[in-house]
C-alpha cells in the first residue's frame, strides 16, 4: 500500500516497480553501512536503539526509494539525512537527533556545521516529494524482503 502521506490513489502506485526499487535501495543501504566506519560506529554506539531501531532504518530505506537516486550515489550524508528525518517523524527527541550531528559532523565541529546539515535535510526532504510518513505496514514489508538480515534484529527495548 502507498504511504499514508502519498497524494496518489493506491491504484496509481505500481506495486512491482515500488518493490523492485525498494529492494535495490535496501541493498545499497546495507552496502553503505557495511563499508562506512562512521555509520558502523554510530549503530554500535546506539545501544538502546533510540535512533536506529529496525523501524527507523526501514524508513531510511523507504526514503532512499522516494528520492530515487541510483544506489551507488548514496553515501554517509544521505544515510544520516534520512535517519534524521525518520527520527524527527517518529521520535522528535533532541538528544537523539544531536547524536546524529555529533557522529556525522564530529563532536567539536557539529555546532558550527549543523545549520548546513539542516539545509541539506530540507533539500533531501524536497527530493522525497515532501513525503516523510511511512506506515508500520510498509516498514514491515521492507523488512520482509530480507527478514534474516541483522539490521532487522535491532528491536528497541525499554531503557533501564
From TrEMBL:
Belongs to the Speedy/Ringo family. It comes from Camelus dromedarius. GO terms for molecular function: protein kinase binding. It comes from the Eukaryota. It holds the Pfam family Spy1. This is Putative speedy protein-like protein 3. InterPro entries: Speedy, Speedy_E. Signal peptide: none annotated.
Amino acid at each position: 500500500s502507498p504511504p499514508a502521506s502519498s497524494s496518489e490513489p493506491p491504484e496509481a502506485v505500481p506495486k512491482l516497480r515500488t518493490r523492485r526499487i525498494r529492494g535495490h535501495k535496501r541493498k545499497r543501504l546495507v552496502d553503505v553501512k557495511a563499508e562506512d566506519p562512521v555509520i558502523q560506529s554510530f549503530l554500535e554506539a546506539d545501544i538502546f536503539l533510540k535512533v536506529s531501531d529496525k523501524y527507523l532504518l526501514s524508513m531510511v530505506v523507504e526514503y532512499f526509494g522516494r528520492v530515487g537516486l541510483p544506489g551507488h550515489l548514496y553515501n554517509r550524508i544521505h544515510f544520516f539525512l534520512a535517519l534524521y528525518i525518520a527520527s524527527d517523524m517518529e521520535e522528535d527527541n533532541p538528544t537523539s537527533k544531536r547524536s546524529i550531528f555529533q557522529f556525522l559532523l564530529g563532536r567539536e565541529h557539529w555546532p558550527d556545521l549543523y545549520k548546513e546539515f539542516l539545509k541539506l535535510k530540507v533539500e533531501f526532504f524536497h527530493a522525497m516529494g515532501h513525503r516523510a510518513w511511512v506506515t508500520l505496514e510498509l516498514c514491515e514489508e521492507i523488512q520482509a524482503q530480507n527478514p534474516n538480515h541483522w539490521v532487522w534484529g535491532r528491536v528497541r527495548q525499554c531503557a533501564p
